[in-house]
Amino acid sequence: MKNQQLDDADFESLLQGIRPRLVGYLLSLTSSLAAAEDLAQETAVILWRKRAEFDPSGSFPAWAFRIAFLQVMNFRRKEGRRLSHELPGEETFRRLEAPDPGFVDIFSSASRDALLYCLGKMREAQRELLLRRYSDGTSLEELSLEEGTNPNALAQKIFRLKKGLFACLRKQGVVIKQL
């Protein structure tokens, strides 16, 4: 429990203030206005239920959007859909929780959701290649042997994947200074 709490009216005001942005965020994750509206309502219920856990000195939108992201994950899991743009699996989350130096290190924790979303838009083989190279630290030579290609061709492939990933991150509001 936090030392300072908002009263119900203030909390409701915060909740109503972010609703349009919340729906837009959920729409970007689901590509369905109906699903986004439903998920926004479910998120609002959870936020209200957990309002005593919110620390007013923190960022309400960041807290709300994190809960909304988790609602999208639950929604997709319940639906049992295997979309070509599915969210990364549990293994990806595990590997990103304790990032090694390199690729994942450039992202702040505030950008973690955007990173997971953008990784989720990639095909699993592409995502796995990037994670093996930068999160696990597998050498380019080892990966090229496994892929059956020369290191230069693989380096170009990885560069293109990173370029696409960074473009997606920029669309999500995460600024990447260099490849």
Write structural notes for this entry.
The chain is an all-alpha fold and 179 residues long. It folds into two domains: 72 residues, Orthogonal Bundle (Rna Polymerase Sigma Factor, Chain: A), CATH 1.10.1740.10; 82 residues, Arc Repressor Mutant, subunit A (Orthogonal Bundle). The protein is 66% helix and 0% strand. The chain is built from eight helices and no strands. The longest helix is centred in the first third of the chain and has 23 residues. About 10% of the residues have low confidence.
Q: In short, what is this structure?
A:
This protein has 179 residues and is an all-alpha fold. It contains 8 helices and no strands.
Helix content percent band = 55-70%
Global shape: elongated
Low-confidence stretches: 81-87, 97-107
β-strand percent reads under 5%
Average pLDDT value? 76
> Which CATH top level class of the largest domain fits?
Mainly Alpha
Largest sheet: none
CATH topology value of the largest domain: Arc Repressor Mutant, subunit A
Please give the domain count.
2
Query: What is the CA-CA span between the terminal residues?
Result: 42 Å
How large is the count of helical segments? 8
Structural class: mainly alpha
CATH H-level name of the largest domain... which superfamily? Winged helix-like DNA-binding domain superfamily/Winged helix DNA-binding domain
- In total, the number of strands is 0
What is the H/E order? Answer: HHHHHHHH
CATH-scheme architecture of the largest domain? Orthogonal Bundle
